[in-house]
Amino acid sequence: GIRKIDLVVVNLYPFRDAVAKGGDFAHCIENIDIGGPAMIRASAKNNAYVSIVSSPSQYKQLMDQMRENDGCTTLAFRKNLAAAAYALTSAYDSAVSQWMAEQVTEPPPTKTVAFQVERPLKYGCNP
Fold first, then answer.
1. What is the per-residue pLDDT across 23-80, written as a single tens digit (0 to 9) for each?
2. Contact present, 4 and 43 (Cβ < 8 Å)
3. By CB count within 10 A, which of 56, 73, 86, 106 is most buried?
4. Burial (CB count within 10 angstroms: exposed 0-12, middle 13-18, buried 19+), residue 24
5. Could you tell me the pTM of the whole model?
6. Exposed (0-12), middle (13-18) or buried (19+): which is 109, by Cβ within 10 Å?
7. What is d(CA 124, CA 83) in angstroms, rounded to the nearest whole number?
């Protein structure tokens, strides 16, 4: 039979790079990843059993986990990976949505914005 999948590693198409380098409409559209975000989200949803590695910066942590856990990963680690995966796909979709809204004559009424956390702030603090 077919063995269960417990590890998924996905790197998304470099959409932001294509836009930043001034790619034309066709080039930027070609660099919108469709299958990658779907695989990432499906894997993250199944974090009880699946580790979703969505960034090369996670490779070392994955190897450490597998070394420490007889080739497996802990549920806590898989949940952390899932949270990072959802944040990645959300930011990716936001970048695509913002760029696409700039390409049309009637932008949609909803705009999403993603931010990188530079430092954690306590409640009520301003940077």
1. 999 999 999 999 999 999 999 999 999 999 999 999 999 999 999 999 999 999 999 9
2. no
3. 73
4. exposed
5. 0.89
6. exposed
7. 25
